[in-house]
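Worked example 3 (structure in, sequence out).
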């Protein structure tokens, strides 16, 4: 049976187009319909009494046609919905949905995003280091807010670009901001300070901030970052001026609290001003003994080692442990150096080694290098080799430590083997190390 299909468009209210199909039959209907019992002319002429309708059964009215519901009116905001932020967070956190996909969906649903929702999307781009998706969110924010500006969103966008390594985009956004607060300045200064060639720009921005905005919640954060840039760029004079500014604005006592004291300590130690560093540390212990950070303890231990005050270094490490501060690779490594200088039997070094293993630092490269140097210096070659073999991927520092240890303890054959192993693994020993091995062979 051949069926011909045809379509007809019917317009319904409200403005929805549906398509209704019907069939055009080219064959007689009698051939298609089933064969029912046909009545004769006699049956048609005979009058049969019709039964009255039963009052119990009422004829149902015809059901109304199914119509598509009208689209809901555009909501003004999603902020009044209790669960909107929860559903939005679960949608944006889905690994299959990028922030750009979420924004497209919200545009189709004609939903206006709140500031908190934009912050969630920017945070996701920051965590994933996705600058492309962050730029999409940035464009959507500018279209939504138009002439209005949200300082919170702009600061987060600067942080997002800086975290993704897009320092030029971060600076462009910073320069285009109609107004800035101390968080804006501190963020862009910290972004530049992360680059070895960006310290000049960081310090230049800090000086500009000082003349434009001298107070604010995050002003001290900018000072800490500026001191770090002064140390990295070897700008002693500007660092001294910043220290004077801290004393002028905060006072002699508060200038050494928290991060400010740690940054001052590291600044002076980087320039070899060890006595000044000790003075800063003594002020920190006198006024804020419970606020001394682990970085400050590591810095003062290193300073004591540089002054050959090894016993003081060990005492400082013991005080740090008693104060409840966690050990770090930066505090354990100089402590092992001090043990190598004053511990004749290596007993103190073994105790530090046990403490490092107990706290999960037994396989850290800097700690293992310190252990190898300490054991080799005490003639405990087996312990040193055992520590070296525990490193999965030894670096140049670790190889040099075991090479020096073999050479100075008279194990010249093992030292030569280490040289060949280093070259086989693609690590080229320094000329000084090669000369030291050659001199040891000649003298022996």
């Amino acid at each position: 049976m051949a069926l011909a299909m045809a379509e007809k468009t019917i317009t319904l209210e409200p403005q929805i187009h549906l398509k209704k199909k019907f069939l055009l039959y080219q064959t007689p209907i009698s051939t298609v319909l089933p064969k029912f019992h046909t009545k004769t002319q006699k049956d048609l002429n005979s009058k049969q009494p019709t039964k009255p309708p039963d009052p119990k059964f009422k004829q149902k009215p015809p059901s109304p046609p199914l119509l598509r519901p009208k689209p809901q009116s555009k909501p003004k905001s999603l902020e009044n919905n209790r669960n909107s932020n929860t559903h939005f967070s679960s949608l944006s956190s889905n690994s299959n949905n990028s922030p750009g996909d979420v924004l497209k969906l919200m545009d189709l649903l004609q939903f206006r995003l709140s500031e908190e929702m934009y912050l969630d999307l920017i945070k996701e781009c920051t965590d994933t280091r996705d600058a492309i998706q962050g730029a999409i969110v940035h464009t959507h924010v500018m279209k939504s807010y138009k002439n209005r500006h949200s300082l919170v969103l702009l600061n987060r966008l600067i942080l997002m670009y800086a975290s993704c390594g897009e320092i030029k985009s971060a600076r462009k956004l910073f320069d285009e901001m109609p107004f800035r607060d101390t968080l804006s300045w501190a963020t862009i200064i910290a972004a530049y300070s992360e680059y070895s060639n960006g310290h000049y720009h960081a310090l230049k921005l800090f000086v500009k901030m000082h003349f434009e905005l001298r107070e604010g919640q995050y002003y001290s954060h900018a000072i800490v970052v500026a001191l770090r840039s002064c140390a990295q760029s070897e700008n002693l004079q500007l660092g001294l001026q910043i220290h004077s500014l801290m004393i002028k604005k905060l006072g002699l006592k508060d200038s050494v609290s928290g991060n400010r004291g740690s940054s001052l300590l590291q600044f002076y130690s980087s320039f070899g001003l060890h006595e000044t560093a000790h003075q800063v540390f003594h002020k920190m212990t006198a006024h804020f003994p419970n606020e001394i950070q682990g970085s400050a303890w590591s810095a003062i231990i290193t300073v004591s080692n540089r002054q050959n005050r090894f016993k003081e270094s060990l005492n400082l490490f013991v005080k740090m442990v008693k104060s409840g501060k966690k050990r770090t690779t930066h505090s354990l490594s100089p402590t092992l150096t001090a043990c190598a200088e004053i511990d004749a039997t290596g007993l103190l070094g073994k105790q530090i080694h046990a403490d490092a293993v107990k706290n999960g630092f037994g396989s850290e490269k800097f700690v293992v290098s310190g252990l190898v140097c300490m054991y080799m210096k005490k003639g405990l070659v087996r312990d040193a080799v055992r520590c070296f073999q525990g490193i999965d991927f030894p670096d140049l520092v670790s190889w040099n430590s075991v090479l020096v240890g073999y050479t100075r303890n008279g194990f010249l054959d093992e030292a030569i083997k280490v040289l060949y192993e280093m070259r086989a693994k693609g690590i080229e020993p320094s000329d000084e190390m090669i000369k030291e091995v050659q001199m040891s062979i000649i003298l022996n």
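Notes: Strands lie at 3-12, 16-25. The chain is about 65% helix and 5% strand.
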